[in-house]
């Protein structure tokens, strides 16, 4: 007996396999909400109706869906929200109406939403809010009205008066020019975002923001004098970036906010004098993060930031820096993290004689133009644990580039131009756990390259030009559990390739290489000693796919739980292909249409633990009565886009735990051959 079979059994929505109360209704041609949701079950809790052409939500649009908790209606054509459109949705906590064409919010629209906590209305055309429109939303904590055409700030403040639990208000990218108001902000409101408006003066009471802890006024036309007398004593984070008439140095001389609570990004602090003055104000202050992004800084002279020396994190991203000069512009005491992304760095020099930063744990130099990294480039950070050099132009790594980084745990070198790897490069990184070399130009990996990385857990070599892996390549990797070799040009795999990691490897990704076999009669067992591997990816081999799977190919994979074989143009699968994979839970053979018309009887009979089987677009014409034998644990069966015209019900009745069956785009005929299937589906 099959307890529950679900799938594309609803006219416009798909029920998610992972949760039967979760529905997705995307890209439908229906113009009314009723036609989309009319056949959904009353136990629906999570509903996504996005990218449709729905224009109106009438009263009671969601009928008997009273259990809804999460509702997405973004990217539609909504223009009209009728009063009572969401009535009876008393359990709803999340509502997304963004990216529509709503011009206004009238009285009664949100009646019934007493438990709503998050409301998203950004990217509409809202110009008017009824003063009592948000009245029913007693529990609302977050309201997003960004990217609309609101201009009357007083009207907005009036409308949110009932929202005593409101914590976050987002009003960026509207047409607000002044913060005129009659009412106060709700007492619980702590975060206000007013960026990208046309604010010139604040024109608000001096204590208007008395309870606000985070305030974003960036990208406006605010003057220094207009904010000078506003009480911001409780603000813990103030962003005033890109206000051309705002002078932060003038403001600091007579402000109500603590200088350590200001974000100094986008304030035109591009000279040594200006930076020095800022640090004078910050002298002796304990600052969690000093943000100096987007200031147009081209050079940092020695000790220029010395008075900012009690900072934990310094972020200099999105400036015009060409070097970091061994951090001579900083003083060492407390710095823990340095971020210099999106600059013009080209070369990292030798820092063997530089002052050391004993507390520095993380450095990120991503998104630069670095092509050369000299020896001892990071000697100033002996206790570094995380280093990000990805998305640069690094061509070569010197023998002693990382020398002294004995405590480094994570190293990202992905998306560079590296062609060769040498054993000496990683010699001093004995604590390294994660090494990412994805998307470089490495063609050959030589023996013992990673020999000095005994604690490495994850090695990512995907997206390179590797044609062969030499025997002994992975020697020394005593704890490697995840190996990514996908999107390379490997044409041959042997058991010797994995010597050194056989006892620890758990995840092996060989997707999109150039593996190819002419016949399933040959015998090959490259994974014979990989008894701990639980995830194996072999899908989409280039350019012609695997086409065949040799005998005993999966021998030794006794712990395998997930096997990906899709997009391989398999012409034949023998009945013993998956023999020995008794722990397999997920098997994907989808998009393998290359002449297979039938699956061998009992091909899955050894897979008693299998829970998900994907057979989409395999050109199957018939299913043998024993093809799904012993699949008593199967929960999801994907038969989409096959040439099946009839299905024997006995096949399905053997799968006693089946929950999801997908027969979409199968040309099933309404004939006597399918009468039993019809009755079974109705039942």
Computed structural class: mainly beta
Q: Separation of termini?
A: 11 Å
CATH fourth-tier homologous superfamily of the largest domain: Ribonuclease Inhibitor
Domain count, please report it: 5
What name is given to the CATH topology of the largest domain? Answer: Leucine-rich repeat, LRR (right-handed beta-alpha superhelix)
Q: What share of the residues does DSSP label as strand, in percent?
A: 15-25%
Q: What is the gyration radius calculated from CA atoms?
A: 31 Å
Q: Biggest sheet, in brief?
A: 16 strands, parallel
Number of strands: 37
Overall mean pLDDT stands at 93
Q: Please bin the fraction of helical residues.
A: under 10%
Q: Briefly, what CATH class of the largest domain? A: Alpha Beta
**Poorly predicted tracts of residues:** 1-8
Overall spatial form: flat
Strand line-up across the major sheet: 17-18-19-21-23-25-26-28-30-31-32-33-34-35-36-37
CATH architecture of the largest domain: Alpha-Beta Horseshoe
Number of DSSP helices? 7
GO cellular component, one term: extracellular space
Keywords: Glycoprotein, Leucine-rich repeat, Receptor, Repeat, Signal
Pfam families: LRR_1, LRR_8
InterPro entries: Leu-rich_rpt (IPR001611), Leu-rich_rpt_typical-subtyp (IPR003591), LRR_dom_sf (IPR032675), SLRP (IPR050333)
Protein model, in words:
The chain is mostly beta strands and 683 residues long. It has 5 domains: 1-173, Ribonuclease Inhibitor (Leucine-rich repeat, LRR (right-handed beta-alpha superhelix)); 176-255; 264-344, no CATH class; 348-514, Ribonuclease Inhibitor (Leucine-rich repeat, LRR (right-handed beta-alpha superhelix)); 530-682, Ribonuclease Inhibitor (Leucine-rich repeat, LRR (right-handed beta-alpha superhelix), Alpha-Beta Horseshoe). The protein has a 16-stranded parallel sheet, with no helix packed on it. Strand 14, helix 3 (224-228) and strand 15 form a beta-alpha-beta unit. The radius of gyration is 31 Å and the shape is flat. The relative contact order is 0.04. Mean pLDDT is 93; it is low at 1-8. Keywords: Glycoprotein, Leucine-rich repeat, Receptor, Repeat, Signal. This is Toll-like receptor 21. It comes from Pelophylax nigromaculatus. Pfam families: LRR_1, LRR_8.
